[in-house]
Design a protein that fits this description.
36% of the residues lie in helices and 17% in strands. By secondary structure, the chain is an alpha/beta fold. The C terminus is likely disordered. It has a 5-stranded parallel β-sheet, with helices on one face. Strands 6-7 form a two-stranded antiparallel ribbon.
């Protein structure tokens, strides 16, 4: 095994982007990466610019335009992306929580990271309880294209066909995320 692969904590000169950089795990990740020599860009709705951070970018992950603006300010090549922003849902409504904790990550990955990262680069997502109570909230998800409807019986209805839905939370989240991002 090469020396480079053995040293997992060597972030010297690696461009790292961290969402949720102002508090909790995101803040700790920023501080650790800075100490390891990374070029750190912090994205958050609350400002935090520790000594050594390359740039803080005010970003509202519940707003697509804010995400798009943030990525105009980031380098074209990102070595590591840490999607750590997360809302517990205790102080935000379910939709905002779901948007920040899931849909924003999906949008960032598909729109930006697939183009700005190379083989060997890394993405890590750590999020909160955005999927909590998904079954109760699912019937409230707006669906323009008619592909998503979860009935009270726990079945997913697609173009008039019923399919068993329970146990497929990720599939629900991806479909709901698509609906949110393409409104």
């Amino acid at each position: 095994m090469s020396e480079e692969r053995n040293n997992l904590m060597d972030y010297t000169d690696k461009v790292c982007v961290v969402t949720g950089s102002a508090s909790g795990i995101g803040r700790a990740v920023c501080e650790l990466l800075i100490a390891q020599g990374a070029v750190v860009y912090g994205l958050d709705c609350n400002e935090y610019l520790p000594h050594g951070m390359a740039q803080f970018i005010h970003t509202d992950l519940s707003d697509k335009a804010s995400i798009d603006h943030a990525f105009t300010l980031l380098p074209e090549h990102i070595h590591c992306f840490f999607g750590v922003a997360g809302l517990s849902g205790a102080k935000t409504d379910w939709w905002t929580t779901f948007t920040v904790n899931f849909s924003a990550n999906k949008y960032i990955t598909e729109t930006y990271l697939e183009k700005r990262m190379k083989e060997g680069d890394a993405i890590a997502y750590v999020t909160s309880t955005g999927g909590l109570l998904w079954e109760k909230m699912a019937e409230r998800i707006p669906c323009r294209n008619g592909l998503l409807h979860l009935g009270r019986d726990g079945r997913f209805y697609e173009k008039g066909r019923a399919q068993k839905w329970r146990g497929h939370h990720g599939l629900f989240a991806f479909q709901a995320g698509d609906e949110l991002l393409h409104q």
